């Protein structure tokens, strides 16, 4: 738990320091006697998961958000970081309408295209088959999760379902998704490429994994430089909050025992001051 808090802070700080438009950024980090706090930039559009509660997205919206998520994954992978928990609930829409990755507590750092990991993590519905089997896995698990997310954006449901966990797992291992008859072929093609059950052949398995995914024909209309510079039109611009929004404040549980000195020592260098003009 403590490790994940520091990983979250470090990735948020990386996003801030590099001005990556596809990751939620850190505002500041601080602590009290019993609590550690991470203050992040405000996501005016809420989560992608909340947006999907209203139904499937248009082809254009799905493509735009998929491009943003792809850029965020590429940014992390290029810096030796696997997210390991890509899903709509961990994607937020910022004030400009662009999608950003969030929730970095499960990130694995210090990895490259040859690294293999054997620790389970993430949401089972978005886990790649190799994770569910307890096998060693690599960064291609993020691309599998992107495939699940694109399907969910386009169809408004998960591609692999079942009445029991065993049935869900069997569908993930042995079945292929069903596609609506009106779903365009380009969207189907990238979902199929990302949901290859063999990570060796999955889209994103090459050394330049992020660029490999960006080159896929599904994204042929995306100007990646313009996307990075936020020059492309977003599907919608969230309404801006009023000055009274959020006045209810944050509820904090009060503890009546003292924490071990070792815990305080661990968090000695946790604090992070906000940048000027953030």
Task: Tell me what you see in this structure.
This is Serine/threonine-protein kinase N2-like. Keywords: ATP-binding, Kinase, Nucleotide-binding, Serine/threonine-protein kinase, Transferase. GO terms for molecular function: ATP binding; protein serine/threonine kinase activity. The chain has 278 residues and is mainly alpha-helical. The chain has 2 domains: 63 residues, no CATH class; 181 residues, Orthogonal Bundle (Transferase(Phosphotransferase), domain 1). Helices cover 36% and strands 8% of the residues. The protein has 10 helices and 6 strands, in the order αββααββββααααααα. The protein has a two-stranded antiparallel ribbon. It has a two-stranded antiparallel sheet with strand order 3-6. Strands 4-5 form a two-stranded antiparallel sheet. A hairpin with a 4-residue loop joins strand 1 and strand 2.
Q: Can you identify the CATH class of the largest domain?
A: Mainly Alpha
Average the pLDDT over all residues and give the rounded result.
88
The SS-based structural class is mainly alpha
Beta-strand content bin: 5-15%
Number of domains: 2
Remind me, CATH topology of the largest domain? Transferase(Phosphotransferase), domain 1
Please count the beta strands (DSSP E, at least 2 residues each).
Answer: 6
Number of helices: 10
User: What is the N-to-C order of secondary-structure elements (H for helix, E for strand)?
Assistant: HEEHHEEEEHHHHHHH
Pfam families: Pkinase (PF00069)
Domain AGC-kinase C-terminal: 220-278
Keywords: ATP-binding, Kinase, Nucleotide-binding, Serine/threonine-protein kinase, Transferase
Domain Protein kinase: 1-219
């Amino acid at each position: 738990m403590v490790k994940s808090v520091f990983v979250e802070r470090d990735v948020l700080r990386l996003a801030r320091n590099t001005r990556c438009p596809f990751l939620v950024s850190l505002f500041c980090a601080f602590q009290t006697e019993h609590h550690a706090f991470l203050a992040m930039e405000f996501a005016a559009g809420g989560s992608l998961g909340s947006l999907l509660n209203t139904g499937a997205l248009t082809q254009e919206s799905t493509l735009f958000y998929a491009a943003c998520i792809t850029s965020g994954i590429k940014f992390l992978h290029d810096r030796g970081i696997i997210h390991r928990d890509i899903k709509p609930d961990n994607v937020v829409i910022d004030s400009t309408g662009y999608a950003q990755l969030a929730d970095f507590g499960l990130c694995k750092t210090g990895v490259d295209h040859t690294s293999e990991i054997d620790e389970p993590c993430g949401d089972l519905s978005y886990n790649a088959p190799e994770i569910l089997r307890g096998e060693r896995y690599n960064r291609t698990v993020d691309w599998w999760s992107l495939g699940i997310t694109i399907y969910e954006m386009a169809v408004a449901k998960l591609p692999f379902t079942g009445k029991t966990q065993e049935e869900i797992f069997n569908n993930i291992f042995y079945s292929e998704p069903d596609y609506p008859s009106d779903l365009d072929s380009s969207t189907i093609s990238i979902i199929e490429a990302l949901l290859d059950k063999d990570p060796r052949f999955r889209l994103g398995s090459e050394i330049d994994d992020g660029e490999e995914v960006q080159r896929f024909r599904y994204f042929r209309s995306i100007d990646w430089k313009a996307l990075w510079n936020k020059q492309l039109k977003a599907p919608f611009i969230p309404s801006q909050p009023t000055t009274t929004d959020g006045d209810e404040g944050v509820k904090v549980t009060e503890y009546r025992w003292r924490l071990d000195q070792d815990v305080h020592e661990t968090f000695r260098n946790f604090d992070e001051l906000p940048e000027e003009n953030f």
